């Protein structure tokens, strides 16, 4: 009887040792796999811009190549935070080769994104504007286009308050006074009124969660009210120059699902984007 108990004890100890060894091996394999996954994940960097983008990134990362790449990618969209009374933030990701694959710049409530693409002209990989998928470009131009007098820009000198630098959170369509304005996409009118800088304006929320804004209107369409659901063929107002405006035009803006103004041209289906 004693021998049987002794045998069972030995078997139990052996099984316990075996189980512990299996567990240790499984933990080791898990650690190795986790390490391999982490190596493949992109590294992320973010910071605040104070003055020049190049200097701000270099000061934070001590990497001249990254600073130069970001400054070059955003050179046509942003110059300096000097004169801005709002916060400017940058964010970017790098791959295992220390190459920037994605970057974004946020100036106040406006955001611009860049992604790494292959440029067939130069034969090089460059950071270019991150464009929405074709199925997401379901917006129409709100007016019969004559010309765009001012593009989306993150540090434009205000045309009226010329000493002040402000992001231009949309595009300006130059059109004659009284030109009809239509919703860029069907949606719900959630706000309309008059503000000092925007003049008469309308804000529409669309089914995809984005919002569109129409500023400097001459008049609202008669009978239009907050809470109305409008279709793309329902006129909502007329082009004018109310608020801070140097001439008749429509300021048109798009706000994404995260609450940031984005370049509306990228989302209009009736515009070709190079």
Which secondary structure elements does this structure contain, and how are they paired or packed?
Elements: H1 2-40, E1 43-48, H2 53-61, H3 64-73, E2 88-94, E3 100-107, E4 110-119, E5 124-129, E6 147-150, E7 153-157, E8 165-168, E9 171-174, E10 180-181, E11 187-195, E12 199-206, E13 211-220, E14 229-230, E15 237-239, E16 249-255, E17 261-262
Antiparallel strand pairs: 1-2, 2-3, 3-4, 4-5, 6-9, 7-8, 9-16, 10-15, 11-12, 11-14, 12-13, 13-15, 13-16, 16-17
Description:
This protein is of the alpha+beta class and 274 residues long. It folds into two domains: 43-130, Nuclear Transport Factor 2, Chain: A, CATH 3.10.450; 136-267, Distorted Sandwich (Glucose Permease (Domain IIA)). The chain is built from three helices and 17 strands. It has helices spanning 2-40, 53-61, 64-73; strands at 43-48, 88-94, 100-107, 110-119, 124-129, 147-150, 153-157, 165-168, 171-174, 180-181, 187-195, 199-206, 211-220, 229-230, 237-239, 249-255, 261-262. Mean pLDDT is 84; it is low at 2-11 and 30-37.
CATH superfamily of the largest domain: Glucose Permease (Domain IIA)
What percentage of the residues does DSSP assign to strands (E)? 35-45%
CATH topology of the largest domain: Glucose Permease (Domain IIA)
**Major sheet:** 10 strands, antiparallel
Briefly say what this structure is.
With 274 residues, this protein is an alpha+beta fold.
């Amino acid at each position: 009887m004693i021998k049987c108990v002794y045998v069972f004890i030995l078997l139990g100890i052996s099984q316990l040792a075996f189980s512990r060894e299996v567990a240790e091996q499984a933990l080791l394999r898990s650690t190795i796999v986790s390490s391999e996954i982490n190596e493949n994940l992109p590294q992320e960097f973010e910071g605040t811009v104070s003055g020049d983008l190049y200097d701000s990134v270099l000061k934070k990362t001590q990497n001249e190549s990254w600073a130069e790449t970001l400054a070059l990618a955003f050179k046509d969209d942003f110059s300096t935070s000097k004169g801005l009374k709002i916060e400017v933030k940058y964010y970017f990701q790098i791959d295992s080769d220390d190459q920037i694959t994605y970057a974004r710049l946020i100036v106040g409530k406006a955001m611009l994104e860049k992604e790494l693409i292959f440029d067939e002209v130069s034969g090089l990989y460059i950071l270019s504007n991150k464009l929405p998928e074709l199925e997401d470009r379901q917006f129409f131009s709100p007016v019969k286009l004559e010309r765009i007098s001012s593009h989306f820009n993150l540090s434009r000198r205000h045309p009226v308050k010329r000493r002040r630098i402000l992001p231009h959170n949309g595009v300006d369509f130059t059109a004659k006074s009284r030109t009809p304005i239509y919703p860029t996409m069907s949606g719900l009118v959630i706000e309309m009124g008059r503000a000092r800088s925007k003049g008469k304006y309308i804000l529409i929320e669309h089914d995809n969660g984005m919002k569109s804004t129409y500023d400097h209107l001459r008049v609202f369409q008669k009978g239009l009210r907050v809470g109305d659901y409008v279709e793309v063929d329902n006129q909502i107002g007329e082009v004018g120059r109310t608020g801070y405006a140097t001439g008749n035009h429509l300021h048109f803006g798009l706000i994404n699902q995260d609450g940031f103004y984005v370049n509306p041209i990228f989302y209009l289906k009736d515009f070709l984007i190079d």
